[in-house]
Design brief:
There is one protein chain. The chain has one domain. With about 80 residues, the chain is an all-alpha fold. Helix content is about 65%, strand content about 0%. It is elongated and about 45 Å long. Helix 1 crosses helix 3.
């Protein structure tokens, strides 16, 4: 059973309202890749992703960052 996160539903009104800086700040602290993918899907369905290119770029960048293996130093 998959969990249904409400994070995307909370960020959507920020983008709809035009508060791009707040939406970008929330994208930077997204809980998981799944939440970012869900946000992308909701924005595409609403037709907002094409209008807000900075948000689309931030989503893509942070999906890549969260998907990449973690870099670490040896002890």
């Amino acid at each position: 059973m998959s969990r249904n996160s409400e994070w995307a539903a909370k960020v959507l009104p920020l983008v709809k309202g035009g508060n791009t800086s707040a939406a970008l700040a929330q994208i930077k602290v997204a809980p998981s890749v799944r939440d970012l993918q869900q946000l992308r899907k909701v924005l595409e369905a609403a037709g907002l992703l094409a209008r807000h290119t900075r948000v689309a770029e931030a989503i893509t960048d942070h999906i890549d960052a969260l998907s990449a293996p973690r870099l670490h130093r040896s002890p």
